[in-house]
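so the lab meeting is tmrw and i was supposed to have these ready like two days ago... anyway. pasting both below. for each one the top line is the aa sequence and the line under it is the structure tokens. i havent really looked at them closely yet so no promises
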Amino acid sequence: MIALMSTTDPVKLGAVRAILRDGGIATEVFDTAAGALWRSIIPVRLMVAESDADDARRILRQAGFAEALDGDWDLKAGG
């Protein structure tokens, strides 16, 4: 598995997981214990199978997201 996204935003995490699930991509969330303690400081990682990573990125781009330099995915303006 590889980290597709690293975020402190639980709403975005849920939305991205739902988008990927609808696209047939299975996800796991790592670091939830640390993230729960320090929610706004320690990001959780959204993991996908390495074989699904390219498809997952394509699905997120089609949904209006852009990969940020910090490992998170942000909605594009107007997206």
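ok protien two:
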Amino acid sequence: MKFSVHVEVRGLPGIADPEGRTIERALPALGFSGVSSVRVGKVIAFDLEAADEGAARVAAEEMCARLLSNPVIQRAEVSIHSS
């Protein structure tokens, strides 16, 4: 079966996010007030062939642990949808 996989990677709480801080400081200059705690992450989307949803999830989580994220400083959330 073919599955659509979305992985959202974000920094763990307490880990510095310089890109988020830069955005947070720039927004008031652009007229946007009241914004705080900006965090920047990334989304990785791909299709995956697997026997079932469980196998797809195991494969995607292994990809996260080995390549797509750094588990020491990041959290990866995997969403699986059948195509």
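from a quick look at the 2nd one: The domain at 2-82 is CATH 3.30.1280.10 (Mth169; Chain: A ,). The first helix runs from residue 18 to 26. will dig more after coffe
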